[in-house]
Structure formats: C-alpha cells, structure tokens
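Morning, I've got a small favour to ask if you have a moment. It would help a lot if you went through both lines with me. I owe you a coffee for this, so here goes:
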Amino acid sequence: MKSLNIIRTYCSLFFILLLSVSCSKEELPKEPIIDLGGESWKKMEIDEYIYSQFVKPYNMEIKYKWNPYEVNFYRTLVPPIEGNVIPVLNTLTNLWLKPYEKTGGKNFFRRFPISKVVLVGSPEYQENGAMVVGTAQGGSKINLYDINNFSTKYKQLIVSLMGTVHHEYAHIFHQSIRYPEAWGKISAHLYTETWFNTTDEVAKTQGFVSAYAKSSDKEDFAETIAYLLVLGQETFDQMIRENIFAEKTFRAKEKIIVQYYKEVLNIDFRKLQAEVKSSMDKQVTN
C-alpha cells in the first residue's frame, strides 16, 4: 500500500510538471490574434462613414475588413473591394433603414436591432450548387455576400442586394416573434429540401414567389416579404395574373404578412412598400 502511494505521488508530480511545461509562456502564439486586440489599422474614410452613419445612430457594427471567424470557415471566400463598401451601405440606408424608420418610427431599430452586418466579397456556394448571398444569425447579425459584383448602375444588382437584405431582416423578425401557425399550413405539402430541382416558373404556379421559397416555411415567409417590398405590389399582382390558379395561395400569404406587420411590428405594410418603391425609383438609373 505504501509503494502504491509513492507511485501515485510520482505520477501526480509528473502530470503537474507536464502541465506547467505545456502552459509555459514560450508556447503561447506570438502573432496577434484577429479580434482579440492584436490588430490595429489607421481609420480611413470608410471607417468614419460607418461610425457616423451606422455605429452612432443604430449601434450597428459594419465589418468589411477580412475576418475568417465571421463566415463559414470551410468555404472559399474573399473580402469585399473597398470601393464597393460605401455604395452598398448607401443603398442599405436608402432602401432599408430609412423606409423602416419612416413607417415604424425613429426607434424601430431599437426594437428590432441589427448588431452587426458583415460584408463578404464573393458568394458562398453550397455542395448542391446553390449560391448563398445572405444569412441571418442569432436574431441580430446579417452576412451579405457577393459585394464585389455590386454596382449602382444596374437595377438588377440593386434589386438582388436589397432582396437579400429584406429577406434576411424578415428572418430577424420571426426569430424574435414567430409568424402565425396558419402560415406554415398554407403550402405545407409542397415544402422540400430538394427545392433546387424546381424552376422559379414552376414554383410560381404552386404559390411561391421563387423556387427557394419552397425550401421551408420560414424561407417562404422571408422570400415573400422581400418580393413584395423590393419588386413591389404591381409586380406581385402581375405574377398572380400570370399564375391565376395560385391566386388563393398568394393572397392568403399576402394577408398574413400585412397582418403580421400591423399587429407585431406596428407598421402599415402598404406604406412601407410605398417608401421602398419611392427610394428605389430615386436610386435606380438603369
């Protein structure tokens, strides 16, 4: 028994010595770690713009400098071109922030805040070939991809960017306050993980604004909101006329969205649509 205690004592001393060696200062990383205070840079025009237009009024962090911890580490992605950052942020201000403030009040983004927007230069591709252009995380963070292809000269690029922004912000809403249960029942039998095997044209005949809306009820919710806001009511009504057999489905979804905005967000959805359209008309040059 005594010899066993001696062995235990020696083993304990060995592990203590091993632990002290493995935790020695010489083993700590010598290079500064991103986002832990090791990095520093001189503030540029972009940084001053972000502080005055986003940090100060909204307490919203805009990250455009490359940080691998903010995105999917297992995908090949690149940082945004700096020349595209301010045009993108100006577009977000005019077609997203201001319309919501005008219809929901100056404190709207305090009720439903976005703490961080991360800009990524390239899109993210999934294994099935689908292209990710935006994600919403934790009810307060939005990642926007494909920034390097943005230009204010072309309407389609503005529509694509703002469709992503309004889609992801809609996710922030339902992550905080879920949409009515009735929403998920409207097209429950048509949601599928293989939505990418359906074309947009076929999806519209089934009561979806896009094929991606078929992937789940929450994506359907976000896609329909983005469509109604960015492409507008006239385009939505025209789509219904072209897919008349799906009219009942489209109108049921539209009704729930209008009610959700009124009862949950205290926003007149029609006024929000008008504000986005007015800003879009001023923004678009081609």
